[in-house]
Amino acid sequence: MIFKLVGDGRPYPEHGLSNRDWAQIPPRQVRLDSLITTKAVLDLHSLLAKDSTFYGDLFPHVVQWQGEFYLEDGLHRALRAALHQRSVLHARVLELTDPG
């Protein structure tokens, strides 16, 4: 199995981070098998495009919420890492705390 779970949607509260805010979070290693996706569908054109990160962040965005790691952005990069038989990838991880 590549991911811990294939999800469809974001179960965590809205964080309001912009791309500039995400860029301030230093990347760290995350195991692919610990990630829960927030998208159940992928676009093969994006997966196979050589320049798919040209206009975006080089690192996937992961939200840590209630002990789980949710892959918010970077599904195609994570799948490419798995296709290259890597078990980890570098991602920016936002740790959200439960407001309650």
TrEMBL record:
Natural source organism: Spongiactinospora gelatinilytica
Name the record gives this protein: Type II toxin-antitoxin system VapB family antitoxin
Family annotation (Pfam families): VapB
